[in-house]
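Work through this protein:
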Amino acid sequence: MKCPFCDELEDKVVDSRMAKEGEVIRRRRECIGCRRRYTTYERVEEILPVVVKKDGRRESFDRAKIISGIKKACEKRPVSTATIEDAADRIEKRIQEMGESEIKSLVVGEEVMKGLHQLDQVAYVRFASVYREFKDIDQFMDELKVLAQQRRER
């Protein structure tokens, strides 16, 4: 592993621990060159589908985009970074479990909406207004009515 401080290629593992319920191994490493310590994370390489965009373009699935979208929706809301990461993990896992080599961006967006619906309803409405491209206040109000009805049913 290349040292992030001095670019030395030799290091030694000082400590290893399981993280995220055994899905990740956290390793503390010490550089042989500069003696500084740093942390790396090891996880199984997962085969994720190619995302087919609305215009037909194809791009690799990008977990960072999921996190970015959720963070924007949750801005100034009482949702921690750890909670956002957990939601992204669940979304990524559901998409992977579909077992498809290609997946439409609409499916990814719907999975994000499901995750936000459970996480924070204000963030959900924010995301939905952009994702579903609300054209006017009536569409926005319709979505709020659906949320209010679901809340009453609980």
Residues 24 and 43 are 5 Å apart (CA to CA). The chain has a mean pLDDT of 89. The longest strand covers residues 11-19. The chain has two domains: 11-43, 50-153.
